[in-house]
Amino acid sequence: MKIDKAAIKAEFQRHDRDTGSSEVQVALLTKEIEALTAHLKINKKDTSSRYGLLRKVQNRRKLLNYLKRENEESYKDLIKKLGLRR
């Protein structure tokens, strides 16, 4: 599955040249996690992809903890937009 990174960046960026803010990174990781989850439902024995999925989930968790600590309002908006359970 191809992920349209440009569309995700355009939706979550703070300004027109923003590509690395926490919001953008979390949104990209969320879409990658969704794609990997769909892949693993079909390919149950693909352990290397499972490890990659776990790394992405852990990285997203770290970024969300940072965002909550630094800017709670932005954190709440992001969680609502992405539909995450936290």
Provide keyphrases for this structure.
86 residues; mainly alpha; Helix Hairpins; 4 helices; globular
Count of extended strands: 0
Helix content: over 70%
Question: Which fold does the CATH topology refer to?
Answer: Helix Hairpins
Q: CATH class, anyone?
A: Mainly Alpha
Element-by-element helix/strand order: HHHH
Main β sheet profile: none
Question: How many angstroms separate the termini?
Answer: 26 Å
Give the CATH architecture: Orthogonal Bundle
Shape: globular
| Class from secondary-structure proportions | mainly alpha
Radius of gyration: 14 Å
Mean pLDDT: 94
- Our estimate of the beta-strand percent is under 5%
CATH superfamily: S15/NS1, RNA-binding
The total count of helices amounts to: 4
Number of domains: 1
Question: Can you tell me the residue ranges where pLDDT is under 50 for at least 5 consecutive residues?
Answer: none
Structural description of this entry:
This protein has 86 residues and is mostly helical. The protein has one domain (5-82): S15/NS1, RNA-binding (Helix Hairpins, Orthogonal Bundle). Helix content is 74%, strand content 0%. The chain has helices at 5-12, 22-42, 47-70, 72-82. It is globular and about 40 Å long. The mean pLDDT is 94.
